[in-house]
Each structure stands twice: as C-alpha cells, then as structure tokens.
Design brief:
The complex is a heterotrimer of chains A (296), B (765) and C (160).
Chain A (H helix, E strand, L loop, with lengths): L5 E3 L4 H11 L3 E4 L5 H6 L7 E4 L9 E4 L2 E5 L4 H5 L2 H6 L1 H8 L4 H4 L4 H6 L6 H9 L2 E6 L2 E6 L17 E8 L5 E8 L10 E10 L4 E10 L6 E2 L1 H7 L6 H14 L10 H23 L8
Parallel strand pairs in A: 1-3, 2-3
Antiparallel strand pairs in A: 4-5, 5-8, 6-7, 6-8, 9-10, 10-11, 11-12
Helix pairs in contact in A: 5-8, 9-10, 10-11
Chain B lengths: L13 H5 L15 E7 L5 E7 L1 H5 L3 E6 L22 E2 L5 E7 L2 H8 L3 E6 L6 H5 L27 E9 L2 H6 L3 E9 L11 E6 L5 E5 L4 H12 L6 E5 L15 H8 L7 E4 L2 H7 L5 E10 L5 E13 L5 H9 L10 E10 L13 H19 L3 H8 L18 H12 L16 E11 L7 E7 L5 E4 L9 H13 L6 E3 L18 H28 L6 E4 L2 E4 L7 E2 H8 L6 E7 L18 E11 L6 E11 L6 H21 L28 E7 L16 H4 L1 H13 L10 H13 L1
Helix pairs in contact in B: 10-18, 13-14, 14-15
Chain C lengths: L2 E8 L2 E9 L4 H8 L18 E4 L2 E4 L12 E3 L12 H8 L9 H14 L5 H7 L11 H15 L3
Parallel strand pairs in C: 1-5
Antiparallel strand pairs in C: 1-2, 3-4, 3-5
Helix pairs in contact in C: 2-5
Classes of the chains: A alpha+beta (296), B alpha+beta (765), C alpha+beta (160).
Chain lengths: 296, 765, 160
C-alpha cells in the first residue's frame, strides 16, 4: 500500500508550476510513477502531495524539424523506442531506452522522469549526456535552457528549483559524419539498471577517419551521471582506431566516479568500463559509416 | 488397464489457472475479515526491553494488538520447538515479528504498526556460521539443549550448534592410506531465496468454542495442524487447516510462516477472521531461505580413478531458528558423498544458528550445495588423473544393488543412464571438435555432473476415493497443488486403475477436517506415497465393486472381472454392468462407495520421524555448454542437457516441466542470485529488482530427457523428481567454466567478477 | 484531493466506484473493489509482472498505476480474455502446451502476450522473450510459455 498523500491533477503547465511552487518540498511531481511509487512504497520518500503531470499533453511527443529534434519530457520510453525519428536519427537513444526495464515499465516511464530521478545508472540519461542534449525548464519565473550535464547537482539531485518542471529535451541531429551508440553491462538480460553503461557520440571528419569531437557518458552505480572527459580528450582530433578506443577505455576507467558496493567491486566496475567503451565506440563509428552519412 | 499411466495428459488445474479462477492464499476473503500487519525487529540480535501499546490501542479501527508476551509457553517448530509466534524476550534476526495489529482495513493496520514503541537493548551479532562457531561467539539460543525436539537432532550445549549429524562407513583413515592420491577442497554456497511469485499469506479465525481455522497457501495442512496444535497445547481436531492453490513453494511455504501472526491476532479478534499478506520484502526477510554452506571435502582415489575414501564436513548456516534446518542437516549430510560407490566414508554436518533469516527446506533439501562441492571436486580429480570427467563418473557411479556411501544397498538407480543421456544430448564425445572460441571471442566449455537426493523416511499418506452413483469420482487427499501437477498425477493413477476417463474426476480441497492424513507435500514424496495411497484406494474400490458384482451376478467374487469402468462375469464380457449400473441395481435409493488407501512403508513402521534409511533415492545428471567472455568474466549457459530418473513417469510432460523449470531455477541460483546480508545482519536486497531471478531472456536452450529405473514399491514403478532436477546444475556449470577458461570457482554464485578475477590471477601466475 | 469517483470499463463492463482513495493502486481496485481476483500482486514494485493488465490496450504493471488514473479508461484483465465459456486462443494454447505449473504468473503472462500479438502478429522468439521479460516465472523456465505463445500466434492468424 502507498503511504498517504493528496493528489493534484493540473490541467496545464502553468497550473502545475504554480502548484509545485506553492507546495515546494512537500510535493513531488508524478509522471510515469515507475520510480516514485517504488520509492514511496519502500518508505524512502513520503511526499504530502503528488502533482500528477501526466495530463499535460504539451509535454508529450517527438517532433523533428530540420536538424532539431524536440522530445517532450513526458514522452514514454516505449514511445521513444517505437519512434521512427529516434530509431533512424538518434539510435544511441534507441539503444538506451529499448534496454530499460520491461515493456510494462517502458509504457509508463518517461524520459523526463529518467532525467529527474538523477540516478547515475540511468540509461536514458547517459544517452542524452552523450548527445549533448539541452533541457528546457519552466518555472514560476519563466523558462530557461541548460545543458544536460549541468542538470545534476549531487547524489540523486537535480538543479530544478522550487516549482520548476522539465518540459522538453532539445537535440540536434548532429552534423555530417556523426554516430552514437549505447550499451550496458548487466547480470540479467532484462529488468536491470546498468552495472556499467557507456554511451559514445562521435563527430568525425575526413570521411569518418578522424574524430573531431567526442562525448562519452557513463552510467554507473556511483553518485551521479557523468561524462568521461579524459576519455573524450583521448579521442579528440585523433585518427580513429581500435587502439585509440582502447586508450579511451583506459582513461574512462581511471576517471570514473565509482566505488565498491554490493553490486560490484570497484576494480571490476572500472574494468567493465575499460572493456565496454571500445565496443560502444566501435559501434558508434560504424554508424557514422565511411561515407560520412548524416546519422547520429 | 493402466492406459492413463505414462500418458502426457493435460493438467487438470490448467483451466482454473488460465482463467484467473484459481484461488491462491492472498485471494481468500471471508466475511468480517480484518487486516493484520506485523511490526518487525530492526535489529538482528537484541533484548526486548519494553513494548508500549498505549497509542496503538487508541487508534480507531484497531481490533486486536498482540505481542509475544500474549503467548507464554508457545513455541513452534517441526524438528525443534524453538520458535515463538512473536518474539519473546529477545529478537534473533532482523525482521523477526515483535508485535502485530489487526484492523478494519489495510491502511489502518499500517498506521497502527507505526504507533507501537519498542525499546531494544542491542546484543552482538553472529552474522555468519563460522563466526557463530567461534569461541566467545554470542549465544543465540541459550539452553538450546532444553528445547523439545525429535530424536535425530543432537544439540551441543553452550554453543550455537543445534544439531550435529554424522555418518560413517568403513575406516576413513585406512581409506586415505590406501589411496594413491588425496584431494582436499573447500566449497561454499550462498544464501538464496525460493522467490515464489505468490507472497506468503494466511487467514485465521477462532470460533466461539476456541477452535482455530486457518486458510492459506501452506504446502502441508496436516503437518501445519500438528505444528500449531503442539505449539498451542491443543488437541489436533481443535485446529483446522485448509490449503489453497500455492503459487510456488519450493519448500518455503511449509511450517509456520504467516500463520502464527494471523492466529495470534485471531485469538484476540473476537472471532473475526484476520488476514495477513506478506509484502515482497517480508517474504525475503522473514519466511525462509536456503542454507548457506561451507563444505570441506576430502577424497582419496586410486590412480585409475576409483574412489576409495570420502570425508565431507559441512557447516549449515541455519539462521535464527531451527525450522527444518536440523533435518536438512541430518538428511542431506547422508547424501554428501554423491551417487557413488565409496568404501570408506565419513560425513559430518553441523547445523549452526546465526542472527539471520531462518534457513530450512529448499528445493533439493541441501543436495545442491553438496553436489556443488562433490561434483566440482570430481572434475578436479579427473583432471589431475587425466581421466575424462564422464568416464570418471561412470567408473564410480552407483548401479542397482550397490551399497551407497551410507551403507545401504540401493534399488532403482538410474544415474548411469542419466549421465549417458545428457552426454549424448550435449554432444560430449564430439566436444573436442567444437571450436574453442566463438567469433565474438567467447570461450566455449562443456561440463557434466550428477547428483542424488534422498527422501524423508518414514512418512505416511492416506487417500480416499468417493465413487458416486453416476460413476464420477472424487479424489480426497491432503496433497497440495503447489504447481507440481499432483492432482493430474493422482487422477491418472486412480482413473488408470479403475478404467475411468479423466473427465469424470473432481478433487477435494486439502482440509484437515475432511482429507485424511498426509505427512506433507514435500521431499519429492507425493507421487510415491500418495500415489500409492490413491492406487490402493482405487484397488479397494475395485474390490468392493467386484463384491457387489458377485452378489448381483450370484457368483464367486473370484469369477468377476472389474476393468474399464465395468464389471462382468468372466467369459461373459457382453453382459457387463457399468459402475453406475452396479450401484443403481443394488441401492436404488442412492449410494456411493468409498475406497480407502493408506501407504506407510512397512519396513519402517515403529521407527520415528526421519530415522530410517531413505525409502528411495532420486538421481539426475546435467551437462552444459557455456560461453565465457574472458574480458568481462560473464558466463552464459548456451545449452543445458538434463536427465532425471523418474522411476517411471506417470505423466512424461509433467516430468519434463519439472526438468525445464528446475534447470532455469538452478541457473539463477548458480549465476545470478544471492541474498546479501551485512555484518549487522541486515538484508541488503530484499526485493525483485536487486535479487535477480532469471527472466525469459535469460533461459537457455534446454534439452530435457527422462530415465526410467522402476522402483518396486512405487506406484507403477514411479519415484519422485521435482527437486533432484536442480541438484547437479551448479557443478555442471562450474565444470564447464573450468573447461572453457581454466579457472575453478569455489563459491556460489558464480558472479562474473569472480571469474574475471580468477582469470587475472591465473594470468599473473 | 484525497479521493475521487472512478468510472471505468473492466472487461467491457461499466463500473462506478465512489470515494476511491488516491493512494489506492489499480491492482487494488481490480481485486478489492471490482472483486476480480485473477490479477495478482507479487511485489507491488513493478518487478514481477503478475499484476499486468491492459490499460486502454497497453500492458502496464497495475501496481504502479493509481486507481484514480483509470477513470474514463478501459481495463482488460485475465477474466476478460475468454468469451462466455470459450477460451481465448492464448489461454487454450497455454493449457495445451503445458505452459502452466503453479499458475501465479499466468494471468499477467497472458496479458503481456496478448499485448504483444495485438501489436505484432508475427513475433520472433526473441521478440516474444523480450515482450514477457517483465513477467517473472519461477516454475516453468519459460520453455512452454514461449511455445504456447508461438502456438497462439499461429492459431490467431487463422480467420475465426
């Protein structure tokens, strides 16, 4: 049984923002509920109020125009999984969401919820980090846009201030010659958060031979979602090769913010990063294609 | 005659279950029902200083509040009476129920429990069995030698050892002296959970005369009735237990689980029924787990691989209360040397209390942990001696009439055929032609293993069959449908003997008021014991029908043939009468006929519970093909061949179902599952996201087959096999990993980080 | 609000429940208020799938849906699969293929399978396993469950 709470069902974003501003710490927004309701059931959180934002149609859906893709924060993982736009133009995100939970969970869990719960092991978050997504936030004082890596403050916390709601995720479908992939290591083949997950997004030149820029995101059991900056540095400006990917893997393994816990000892988690990154990087590179097709 | 025996008849309970009509424990609803909830200890070991119930008693909607103090002198437990219904004086594991509340609705019950204030005085925690054995370890049950117990239990005073069980044959030291090589190894197994999909529950009600009624998914209503009656100092007939369908038991839904809490509340609830349904967290923390073990195995062999001597020392981590722990220790320790001929044997098991969740009966009853040790070591030995692992086993495996490691001659021994069948199915002889490394760089390995399991002996089962005047049959037994297909099996036997169609059969619900005694639906004993009882009952009916026919035909009863639903005078089959016609002719105003069958092994009458050599042994073998990723240590089972000795399959599909399910269950407990408890006795992962059982995407290709080694005393030769189907999976996988990458893992589960680390260390050498 | 009136269709039949507490989940509404016990609650946290129902045609863990959210919606439970006494082809296949042991996972499994076939009438074995990955089973090893779904795919592709 869920603990006691009072429910609000705002009809539009304005109302939702007003409610969340007024109620502050006493309220939590309810999207898909696949994380929040579990937290409540396990007694880890006891909000007095839930503000159910699932009625906000304006926060749902995937649109593409030109080189810009906009994903509503309330878009479910399942909708993303089945979206032709996502599969064709953001396959790294498809990789991530299609491996999450079960069909039942993906039908309810939202990409916005995945970001806002700020778990370091969140696959969707890692893919968006690798893609360099920009997040649109709406609050009582108006809206702002921030880079996804600036969204996380500390363990399981975001920079959302009182009353602020994540509304949309903005992605550019990369330039010519880019490609991305995401993969994770889990014990079971389904129903599991990443023990280690790696997302790699490459921007290349010279027909895919040289890395112009790389973004590498790690999903771990550590405190926050993070990028592997030194690994990115290893790739930047270099001719791509297996050997280069291996060095990037080493770098990422060293810089990752992981410790030992019951899920895995630290040295093993670092080792998984080291061996997973080159595999993911190779797949990202393959998606670039040698003619430098415009897929990301 | 027995046309139905051996046929893959569709399961009779399937319709109920696909329709959603099957009633499980949490589905039971009685008029006026209250909701019960327990308050559980946050400490693994502590004295209870005080419990303040003032606030909770004042909450509107609360109808009963109980603590251990309300039940002085009430101690339950089948083997050892050491467990109060609610904690008394102290708590011995984190999650132990300390108090409970019954309220008008669930919300009130949850709120009420939070209003109970308990003051504890923490005590040092013994968080694992080896620590509990050390000198100076905190004593978890002081005066344990004073508990009422059955005769096979041998406690050690002033210790945490509730029982020591020892078996010897020959002269172990001589055996080692005569050996060419001696191997000593240690293997460990982790704590795992049954993880049934249905949570535990019970509905209890006390009527105006003080009689207790309990509904729930308990696997053994008569056993539960005795447990309760003994604990509450009541006559057996003053307790009634009714079992629903069980949504997965695997040994974890027997004995006292949710029932004590529901009953404790019902005794104070003014005759209203009280329902208690455990949350998934409570199921993990406070029902039952499988014994973690430390097994030290020392084996002496001749150079040609012949086993000479085997000494096995086992420490069984039995958790905070005895439950079935001591009988797991006594029964499984006898199986520790494996299904082999070994002239000199010494087996010793210590059953040790710890401040953790109670360990007890779990599919295999200790044999998987033992096979993990024994059949992993068999491969270590085979490798050292340069003998093929299959050959090593075939040289030593028991055959009909051999004497087993505990000195008993064995009958109905199908283990050799099991080994040969799985070897064939997996392609054992051809494995050297199989590429050692796949395209993706995974290392391929093959492993084989076998195992044996005994059954609790003696035990009895009684069945009744009601033949109605229209020829329909009601099967009246206390065997519980836990998913194993018991109803179908018993119907096949009854209908097979009587020559009636399966469609003519109905079943009584297991109910101690009306279904006669059955020891339990456990120990893989039901097909054999209750199957015999039903067979005898059917034969009894046939005799009565023959007598009725003889009186109607006016002839001697020996001239009557009863078969295929009819009776006739010999040589005059065209003048037969059906069963309904027989009854109608004699009893025009209506009648029924009752067949009775009682099976209790003759040889063991007069012996006490668990005291006798096993009535039958069950055997199985597994062979697996694994792929190991040397980069991550990940182990994937690609194909698993499994064969089980069924004695004779009453229903082949039913047997294959067990083999398939058992294989995936064991893959889970070998590779993925462990209940993690920290050194303060706190369970870290009591939920289905962190305790991982295999999903549909984790199940490999399973090649299942059956072996027949008929048992002279089993119904149509059948034995049992629902547990043995897990026993030899762990060592088969361990052996395959060693074959693939040359590392030997010695503690379960075989996590990928362990394989990776072992690979790294072996490279460094 | 702390409670709300919920009007919904379950298995094609209209239901009205007044004063439904907002903290009640859909699985509780189905079992305790509508009295349909076929849908189970194995964990309450969306990990086991025994509470799977179709909500407006979509498979969901009903333990993670607030009962009040079902207002105005359609729910299909296991009881709604058969028509009068005639079993749905999936139910028939589960019986015939020996896919049922203890039965506790079966209602959720049937609905997850139905959702799959509704969306994808010709799933591969891998797609079947992915579709039921959120429905845990401890008894069967999934062997005959997958076979039953494959058999139902065939029988459902034939005109009725």
């Amino acid at each position: 049984m869920l603990p006691e709470f009072e429910l609000f069902e705002p009809r539009d974003l304005q109302e939702a923002v007003a409610l969340l501003t007024e109620l502050g710490e006493r309220a939590r927004p309810l999207a898909g509920g696949t994380d929040l309701m579990v937290e409540m059931r396990e007694g880890r959180t006891r909000p007095e109020y839930l503000v159910d934002i699932k009625g906000l149609e304006e926060l749902k859906g995937v649109t593409a125009s030109g080189g810009l893709i906009v994903i509503g924060a309330l878009t479910t993982l399942r909708v993303l999984e089945r979206s032709a736009i996502i599969r064709d133009r953001l396959p790294i995100l498809y990789d991530a969401v299609s491996q999450m939970g079960s069909v039942q969970i993906r039908g309810r869990g939202t990409i916005g919820g995945n970001l806002c719960n700020a778990h370091a092991s969140a696959d969707g978050t890692a893919a968006l980090l690798a893609l360099g997504a920009r997040l649109r936030l709406q609050g009582p004082k108006g809206s702002r846009e921030i880079a996804v890596e600036d969204f996380f403050s500390s363990t399981h916390k975001t920079v959302l201030s009182a009353g602020e709601v994540l509304t949309h995720i903005h992605l550019s479908t990369g330039s010519y010659g880019s490609g991305g992939a995401y993969s994770k290591y889990t014990v079971r083949k389904a129903m599991e958060p990443a023990l280690v997950g790696v997302g790699v997004f490459l921007k290349t030149e010279q027909a895919g031979a040289v890395c112009r820029a790389a973004r590498i995101a790690l999903a771990t059991t550590g405190p926050r979602p993070e990028r592997a900056l030194r690994a990115e540095e290893t790739l930047r400006g270099q001719r791509l090769s297996e050997e280069l990917f291996a060095r990037a893997g080493e770098a990422a393994a060293g810089e990752a913010n992981v410790g030992s816990n019951w899920r895995a000892p630290e040295d093993y988690a670092r080792h998984l990063i080291e061996v997973l990154l080159p595999e993911v990087a190779r797949r990202a590179w393959e998606r670039v294609g040698h003619e430098g097709r415009n897929i990301s | 005659m027995e046309a139905l025996v051996g046929k893959p008849v569709t399961r009779v309970d399937a319709l109920d279950k696909v329709s959603g009509a099957a009633v499980f424990g949490p589905d039971v609803k009685l008029v006026g029902m209250l909701y019960g909830k327990a308050l559980r200890s946050p400490y693994a070991h502590a004295r209870i200083v005080s419990i303040n119930l003032d606030a909770v008693r004042k909450l509107p909607g609360v109808r009963a509040v109980v603590t251990g103090a309300d039940m002085p002198g009430v101690l339950g437990g089948e083997a050892v009476k050491d467990m109060p219904f609610l904690a008394q004086g102290k708590v011995r594991y984190m999650g132990e129920p300390v108090a409970a509340v019954a309220a008008e609705d669930e919300a009130t019950a949850l709120k009420a429990v939070e209003l109970i204030e308990v003051v504890y005085d923490e005590l040092p925690v013994a968080a694992d069995a080896l620590a509990a054995l050390e000198k100076g370890a905190p004593l978890i049950h002081e005066g344990l030698e004073n508990y009422a117990r059955i005769s096979v239990i041998k406690p050690v005073p002033k210790s945490n050892i509730i029982s020591v069980n020892e078996y010897t044959k020959g002269d172990i030291e001589q055996g080692f002296r005569e050996s060419d090589e001696v191997f000593e190894d240690e293997f460990r197994s982790q704590t795992v959970h049954h993880a049934p999909l249905e949570p535990h529950s019970a509905v209890a009600q006390v009527d105006v005369s003080g009689r207790i009624l309990v509904w729930g998914p308990n696997d053994s209503p008569h056993r539960l009735r005795k447990d309760l009656a003994d604990a509450l100092h009541m006559r057996l007939d003053r307790v009634r237990v009714v079992s629903t369908y069980v949504g997965g038991g695997f040994g974890g839904k027997g004995g006292l689980k949710a029932e004590p809490i529901a009953i404790a509340l019902a005794l104070k609830a003014n005759h209203r029924p009280v329902k208690v349904v455990f949350t998934r967290e409570e199921v993990f923390q406070a029902t039952l787990v499988r014994h973690a073990t430390v097994v030290r195995i020392k084996t002496g062999v001749k150079r040609d691989g012949t086993l000479m001597a085997r000494e096995v020392k086992i420490v069984w981590d039995t958790g905070a209360y005895a439950e079935k722990g001591p009988t797991v220790c006594s029964q499984a320790t006898a199986a520790a040397a494996g299904p082999y001929r070994v002239p000199h044997v010494h087996l010793i098991g210590q059953c040790v209390y710890t401040n953790k969740a109670v360990a007890g009966a779990y599919r295999g009853y200790g044999t998987p942990q033992l096979a993990w040790a024994c059949d992993s070591q068999m491969d270590i030995i085979a490798k050292k001696l340069g003998i093929d692992p299959l050959e090593m086993r075939l040289r030593n495996v028991l055959r009909e009439g051999d004497v087993n490691p505990v000195g008993h001659p064995v009958h109905s021994v199908g283990v050799e055929d099991c080994l040969k069948q799985v070897a064939q199915a997996i392609g054992w002889q051809e494995r050297q032609h199989h590429p050692r490394v796949t395209e993706k760089g995974r290392h391929v390995g093959f492993g084989i293993a076998c195992g044996a399991k005994n059954t609790k002996t003696p035990s009895g089962s009684e069945a009744a069959l009601y033949l109605s005047q229209d020829g329909s049959l009601t099967i009246v037994t206390a065997s519980v449908e836990v998913g194993q297909g018991v109803r179908t099996i018993l119907a096949q036997i009854a209908c097979g003997v009587l020559g009636l169609p399966m469609e003519n059969v109905s079943f009584s619900q297991p109910d101690t008021d009306s279904t006669p005694f059955d020891a339990s639906t456990t120990s893989s004993r039901t097909t054999f014991h209750m199957g015999n009882a039903v067979k005898f009952a059917a034969e009894d009916l046939k005799k009565q029908l023959a007598q009725l026919a003889a009186s109607l035909f006016g002839c001697d009863v020996n001239q009557v043939v009863v078969d295929g639903g009819k009776a006739w005078l010999a040589e005059q089959a065209e003048r037969s009468l059906t069963y309904p016609e027989l009854l109608q002719k004699q009893y025009g105003a209506g009648a029924s006929m009752t067949g009775r069958g009682f099976y209790y092994p003759k040889s063991e009458q007069g012996k006490a519970f668990h005291e006798s050599p096993s009535l039958f042994w069950m055997y199985a073998a597994h062979a697996v093909q694994v792929e190991v990723d040397p980069k991550t240590g990940r182990v994937e089972v690609k194909r698993l061949a499994a064969a089980a000795d069924t004695g004779r399959p009453i229903n082949p599909v039913n047997c294959l179902q067990q083999i398939e399910g058992g294989a995936v269950h064991a893959i889970g407990t070998t590779l993925m599952e462990e209940l993690i408890v920290d050194n303060q006795g706190r369970m870290v992962n009591p939920n289905f996201h962190d305790y991982r059982i295999p999903t549909a995407m984790d199940a490999p290709e399973i090649l299942a087959s059956l072996v027949e080694a008929p048992h002279r005393e089993g119904p149509f030769g059948a034995k049992g096999m629902a547990e043995i189907v897990t026993t030899s999976v762990p060592p088969a996988i361990g052996n395959a990993i060693e074959d693939a990458v040359g590392v030997r893992i010695r503690d379960l589960p075989i996590r990928s980080d362990k394989v990776w680390r072992a690979l790294r260390e072996s490279k460094e050498k | 609000m702390k409670e709300k009136s919920v009007t919904l269709r379950i298995n094609g039949e209209a239901h009205v429940f007044n004063h439904v507490s907002v903290r009640k989940t859909l699985v509780q509404l189905i079992r305790d208020d509508a009295g349909l016990m076929g849908t189970k609650e194995g964990c309450g946290e969306g990990d086991c799938g025994t509470c799977t129902v179709l909500l407006n045609g979509q498979p969901v863990n009903s333990c993670l849906v607030l009962a009040t959210e079902a207002d105005g919606k359609e729910v299909l439970t296991v009881e709604g699969l058969s028509r009068e006494w005639e079993l749905h082809p999936l139910q028939q296949a589960f019986v015939e293929e020996g896919a049922v042991q203890c039965g506790f996972c079966i209602p959720g499994m049937l609905l997850a399978a139905k959702a799959l076939i509704d969306e994808n009438p010709t799933p591969t074995e891998a797609e079947i396993r992915a579709a039921i990955a959120g429905n845990l089973c401890r008894c069967t090893g999934y062997v005959r469950i997958v076979q039953a779904i494959q058999s139902a795919v065939v029988s459902m592709s034939r005109p009725r």
